[in-house]
Amino acid sequence: MMLLSLLANPAVRPGLFTARRAKPAARQSRWLRMAEGISLWLAVLLMLFVHPLYAEARQMDMEQPGQLYLMNDQSARQQPAVILDSEFQVHVSGLLAQTRLTRTFRNASDQWQEGIFVFPLPDKATVYGLRMTIGEREIVGHIEPKAKARQTYERARQAGQHAATLEQHRPNLFTSRVANIPPGESVQVEIRYQQPVAYKHGEFELRLPTTLTPRYMPGDPLAETQGQWQSGWALATTEVADAHEISPFTVRPQDVDGGSHRARIGIEIESGLALADVSSPSHRLHTELDGARATVRPEQEKVLMDRDVIVRWRPVAGSEPKAAVFHQTWRGEDYLMAMVLPPETVGPVLRRELVFVIDTSGSMAGDAIAQARSALLKGLESLRPGDSFNVIQFNSQAHALFAQPVPAEGHYLARARRYVQDLRANGGTEMAGALSLALGMDSGPGGERVRQVVFITDGAVGNESALFNQIRSGLTDRRLFTVGIGSAPNMHFLREAARWGRGEFTAIHSGAEVDRALNRLFAAMEAPVLTNLDVRWPDQGQPLEPVPARPGDLFRGTPLIQVIRGLPAAGQLQVSGQLPGGRHWSTSLDLAQAAPASGLNRQWARGRIDELTDAARLQGQTPDEQQITELSVRHGVISPFTSFVVVEQRRARPETESAGSQSIPTLLPAGSQPGMLRYPQTATFAPLFTALGLLGLMFSLAIAMLNRRPSL
């Protein structure tokens, strides 16, 4: 402070000294000379510090351009990250797709390594197989209770054995661990799963997630993470206890090895219907069509794992399915899957109260917020005279444009359009507050209306279960419709939020998808096509367990799909319901005409596990772990309480060798802003730039003092 005061004093300026001020000037001169000396010595010391930083940064840049290096807490450079390669081989038969996903973990370092990879799968995926391949040796995994599987894997890792495990955190989020990968060698892990093929509005769709948007973790941290390494960027919180397990680091493609995080994809489609075309909004495709069969792959040999891969196919006009039934016998038990499409019908036009909720949190920055604004503006265009509306935007806080819904009239709509066009993305994703505001909002004036909420978001949250409970308890007479945004949205949240909200969901992959997706959604929102559904399977004198047990209302273009166990392919399935205006509708299916299928037992088991989990949630209880575990083990499908584990019995790593552990990052979803990057500590030029900045400040200070030095 004294030095700053002296420099600011005009008495030190050259030419202004007098004999009367000689003593103060002399003292001031001594202070300046001392400050100059200290600054110059600090500059020299800083130069000595900067040189090795510069040399290390240059050496690292020359050794492996773009290679990701992990740092320990002493900033010591560690070995390069494990390189990841992926291959998806998909076979579609009717309404089910079987996928063989092969991950290759290549250890590019000179130390034995453990690779840890957190990754997404389709939100309705049923995982039923795990295999590990080392050289020519293939070892098949098995299911164990989650705690036991962790112990089995950890013992094998410490004993130097090759081992792998697969664990579920959410229905669409998993962790794979691979122990004792030899230096310079590879270990392959094959995951087998199946998923239902989506069918809406006469078109089939298959979605393969390859990365995920970093999720917001609300709540207060529970404790500091112990240990030298962390597997995720987030700490466990009071609302997301497993936040540290579902928060993989997110990096740019240039931050990893040039051959890492790429995927080969091959899809074989046997639809049973003559196909008109195959398309994709996410990738350019090479397609070979042959009647009801199609072979599909991206034009690129390997695609970057920075967005969902979406493939759609459409039957020839006039051959769209109205109903279908499939049959499988597994271990002496019969399984049936039925699909019934409701009739295309238009009921009376209803007056509606629409509350639009738009996510403006930081994860929506970039292409996502532009798509979200377009979706909301499209929603405003869908309003008709007699409707009312409101707009809520949320990030760290929620804010409503109007105190209550207002009439869909000119000046209100104009104000809403200006408001939406000015929205920008930043802050956290406090979704609970936005739901409370939307579901608790009083109706506006003008009489009774159908109350609907349109929720536009990427779903990048970690507290999904708490939000589903909030929707269920606060919904009352409303319906909740979700609109997914971005190249890698959380489809589990979007689908389940709409299900608990008795509504529908859609996803927008790019700006070009906005009109197509929303026209269909808003048409479905006009009114359910079929209510009070009654599904009656043939009476066999025994209790049946259909999944889902109680189907909800059906919307335009969306079929009823139900799987049942213990019923042979004989007799008639009767489906009935109420059309708009109160008219009765019914149809029947001849089960003897069922087509052969595989995987129905797994689909039933996955659905039954979901039903048990839902029932416990509705009653505020913990799910029946024993019953779910028994179902999981019997049918060989993973569950929240079980994991796959595979171990090679012989020791691979010598006792004299130690092993490291590396968390493999995911790629930043395409279209996201750099603010969504979640880096581990990396050896970059950051320390060098910091040091250079300090050096520049020192020289600037020294030059300033020299310029202000008085001439005596």
From TrEMBL:
Domain VWFA, chain residue ranges per copy: 353-525
Database matches in SMART domains: VIT (SM00609), VWA (SM00327)
Membrane-spanning parts: 685-706
Pfam families in UniProt: VIT, VWA_3
Keywords, ordered alphabetically: Membrane, Transmembrane, Transmembrane helix
PROSITE patterns attached to this UniProt entry: VIT (PS51468), VWFA (PS50234)
Cross-referenced InterPro entries: CHP03788 (IPR022440), VIT (IPR013694), VWF_A (IPR002035), vWFA_dom_sf (IPR036465)
Record NCBIfam families: marine_srt_targ (TIGR03788)
Protein name per Swiss-Prot or TrEMBL: Marine proteobacterial sortase target protein
Species per Swiss-Prot/TrEMBL record: Marinobacter shengliensis
